[in-house]
Write a structure and sequence with these properties.
213 residues; Tumour Suppressor Smad4; Arc Repressor Mutant, subunit A
């Protein structure tokens, strides 16, 4: 099966966003209309930068542009690997978020640290840029991954059971078992951020992920 492609997401000041799948060996960015991603600014070179897809990983490099290409605030010199949450900046004001395959995370802007980032393939979690070690248990990660699909959305107890305990009928999992799992997850997340309650109760229904504002 072909591997799912990563994304580049460009957010505009209006709040709208555009995204491009990085499903080609080379994705070009620049002012010239023949590029895969066209940026209409005189400060952008005709062929400004490109993203390379090689053996399941992605790299970004500048194409000798006049004003440069920046990765997380540093001007690129040669090709550099991309990681989920990285920000590619092309002057004057184009900021692309790189969203890797298998990653679920809110976007960040240049200079910000993501409050929460998940690597669903390796079951790793970062809070404010610091990795949670030791890793979450499979049940804890499954719960967090579900809630992180749509932060702010309330997930019912039945939905949680279907994901965390897929082989057990809903009547076989008590409310006490779900509450205990939530408490353990909260305790683990508090190891890196005790000031914020990431998992919030939706009274009479279930739980939701509450990201810092």
């Amino acid at each position: 099966m072909e591997q799912e492609a990563a994304l580049l997401v460009l957010k505009h000041s209006s709040g709208e966003s555009h995204q491009w799948e990085l499903d080609k060996p080379v994705t070009t960015i620049g002012r010239w209309q023949a590029n895969d991603i066209v940026l209409t600014s005189r400060e952008v070179s005709r062929q400004h930068a490109r993203v390379l897809r090689e053996a399941g990983r992605y790299l970004v490099e500048d194409c000798g542009s006049k004003n440069g290409t920046y990765l997380n605030g540093r001007r690129l010199v040669g090709a550099e690997p991309l990681h989920d949450g990285d920000v590619i900046h092309i002057p004057p004001n184009f900021d692309f978020n790189f969203v890797d395959t298998g990653a679920t995370a809110p976007f960040r802007t240049a200079g910000e640290v993501q409050p929460l980032r998940l690597d669903t393939e390796q079951r790793r979690v970062w809070i404010r840029g610091e990795e949670l070690i030791p890793p979450l248990s499979p049940a804890q990660f499954a719960l967090l991954e579900l809630l992180a699909e749509q932060p702010g959305r309330a997930y019912s107890r039945d939905e949680i059971i279907e994901v965390v305990w897929p082989d057990v009928a809903s009547e076989g999992v008590s409310d006490a078992a779900i509450d205990a799992l939530v408490r353990r997850l909260r305790t683990r997340l508090a190891e890196l951020d005790e000031r914020h309650q990431y998992v919030a109760v939706v009274r009479g229904y279930g739980f939701k992920l509450n990201l810092p504002g």
